[in-house]
Design a protein that fits this description.
The chain has 150 residues and is α+β, with helices and mostly antiparallel strands. It has a single domain, classed as 2-Layer Sandwich (50s Ribosomal Protein L5, Chain: A), CATH 3.30.1440. The chain contains five helices and five strands, in the order E-H-E-E-H-H-E-H-E-H. Strands 2-3-1-5-4 form a five-stranded antiparallel beta sheet. Helix 3 runs antiparallel to helix 5. The longest helix has 16 residues. It is globular.
């Protein structure tokens, strides 16, 4: 059984465009992250001078592990374990995009378009090594998928 990986950090980020209801985007972000906190906000300017609000939550280690468990409950752990190699960059950062509209409706779904909630997680290993990070996260996701005790 693979123990739960440790994370240096995990962020969950979404963008609220001028045409979107910011409260709904915040609600979707909070659901996806599984926390009831106010996100950090940063006003950005789009290509056509439109205002885009970047919303970001930083998850502590326990909340990050709970997010993995919620992904498993949504039936995504096996898929993410299979895709782990292509979702992890050379620095050991795992990347996932969740569908923003589905999150607003209370569902965790891997995004198939650009309108997404971005999840990034830096897996902690010693020594820092992509292969070790990949093994830790992939093993944990596979264990979650098979519902083995962790």
């Amino acid at each position: 059984m693979a123990p739960a990986p440790k994370f240096h950090w995990m962020t969950v980020r979404a963008f609220a465009h001028a045409t979107e209801d910011r409260a709904r985007v915040k609600q979707a972000l909070a659901f996806a992250a599984g926390v009831d906190e106010a996100p950090e906000e940063e006003a950005l300017e789009g290509h056509h001078k439109n205002v885009i609000l970047a919303l970001e939550l930083s998850l502590k280690s326990g909340a990050a592990r709970r997010l993995l468990e919620r992904l498993a409950e949504a039936g995504l752990a096996a898929r993410l374990a299979e895709e782990c190699d292509r979702r992890m960059d050379e620095d050991g950062v795992f990347h996932l995009r969740l569908a923003k509209q589905d999150a607003y409706l209370g569902r965790l779904v891997v995004a198939s378009d650009e309108d997404a909630i971005l999840v990034r997680a830096k897996v902690a290993t010693y020594p820092a090594d992509r292969a070790l990070a990949l093994e830790a996260l992939k093993g944990h996701l596979a264990a979650l998928a098979s519902r083995q005790p962790i």
